[in-house]
Design goal:
- The structure is a single chain.
- It contains seven helices and twelve strands.
- It is of the alpha/beta class.
- The chain has two domains: about 150 residues, Rossmann fold, CATH 3.40.50.1000; about 70 residues, Hypothetical Protein Ta0175, Chain: A, domain 2, CATH 3.90.1070.10.
- The strands form two sheets. The chain has an eight-stranded mixed sheet with strand order 5-4-3-2-1-10-11-12, sandwiched between helices. The chain has a four-stranded antiparallel sheet with strand order 6-7-9-8, with helices on one face.
- Helix 1 links the parallel strand 1 and strand 2.
- Bound molecules: ligand L263DTV3.
- The ligand O=P(O)(O)OC[C@H]1O[C@H](O[C@H]2O[C@H](CO)[C@@H](O)[C@H](O)[C@H]2O)[C@H](O)[C@@H](O)[C@@H]1O binds next to strand 7 and strand 9.
- Keywords: Hydrolase, Magnesium, Metal-binding.
- Its EC number is 3.1.3.12.
């Protein structure tokens, strides 16, 4: 069922997934297009919501900073394993599990299937098969088995044409909970928008907090609301900025 979310309010706290939510998916992680209009929208939202806007991504903070160039923006990276709060303090959670051994064991797969893209994010690893979708089932079984044999400290996080291996203990839900305990998020109604399986942790957390969870696109979800695609997300968020523009215009008219 498709339920449209209510109009957004500047008094809420906004947690935004990146790939597939703010930015259209691309053939490879490096191919995403970040346009100026998106950056302006994020900046406007951040200002109009008194700073209560954070990105919640599977990408690393360094990657997001490199692509977006917004070093002041609160963000959680690596599915919740690192985060930067509104004061600019960066925290990286301690991890267990031998991710380097998994990296070594993935080498034969990478040598055999040249279409696979391997993303080493330090704390987590991602194996992308968007260029070879038919390998998906086989790769998922292979990696699941590998991670199971490695013990209980690591887990598989499936995503869109990607299999990620990450430590247990943190996720997008825990990142949102951490942000909500601090200013300027504290006391606001949390909104989380995401499109992928890793975002389900965020939806569950926001639902528990009485917030607004929004799934982008199709598929089973714990989210309460749905938006069809990236353009619909941006249009929905723009209601805040355009309402403010018309308010400014009205005040200008009143003053002059
Ligand atoms: O949590 P997100 O911000 O949505 O990040 C999830 C993963 O996104 C990236 O991979 C996905 O997007 C790529 C570019 O569009 C696409 O080629 C790939 O198939 C998708 O899975 C990123 O590369 C991962 O590190 C993120 O975890």
């Amino acid at each position: 069922m498709t339920v449209a979310p209510p109009p957004p309010l500047p008094a809420w706290a906004y947690f935004l997934d990146v790939d597939g939510t703010l930015i259209d998916l691309a053939p490879t992680p490096d191919d995403i297009q970040v346009d100026r209009e998106l950056l302006r929208l994020i900046e406007d939202l951040h200002r109009l919501c008194n700073g209560a806007v954070a990105l919640i991504s599977g990408r690393a903070l360094a990657d997001l900073d490199h692509r977006l160039g917004m070093p002041q923006l609160p963000m959680a990276g690596l599915h919740g394993f690192e985060w930067r709060n509104a004061a600019g303090n960066v925290q990286r959670h301690a991890t267990a599990g031998d991710i380097r051994s998994i990296e070594q064991q993935l080498l034969p797969l990478r040598r055999r299937y040249k279409q696979l893209i391997f993303e080493d994010k330090g704390t987590t690893l991602a194996l992308h098969y968007r260029q070879a979708p038919r390998l998906g089932g086989y790769l998922h079984r292979w990696v699941r088995n590998l991670v199971r044999l490695a013990g209980k400290d690591l887990q598989v996080q499936p995503g869109k044409r990607v299999i990620e291996i990450k430590p247990r203990g943190h996720d997008k839900g825990s990142a949102i909970k951490d942000f909500m305990a601090q200013p300027p998020f504290f006391g606001r109604t949390p909104v989380f928008i995401g499109d992928d399986q890793t975002d389900e942790h965020g939806f569950v957390m926001v639902n528990q907090m009485g917030g607004i969870s929004i799934k982008v696109g199709r598929g089973r979800t714990q989210a309460s609301y749905r938006l069809a695609h990236v353009a619909a997300v941006l249009d929905w968020l723009r209601q805040i900025t355009s309402a403010n523009e018309s308010h400014d215009k009205e005040s200008n008219i009143a003053v002059t």
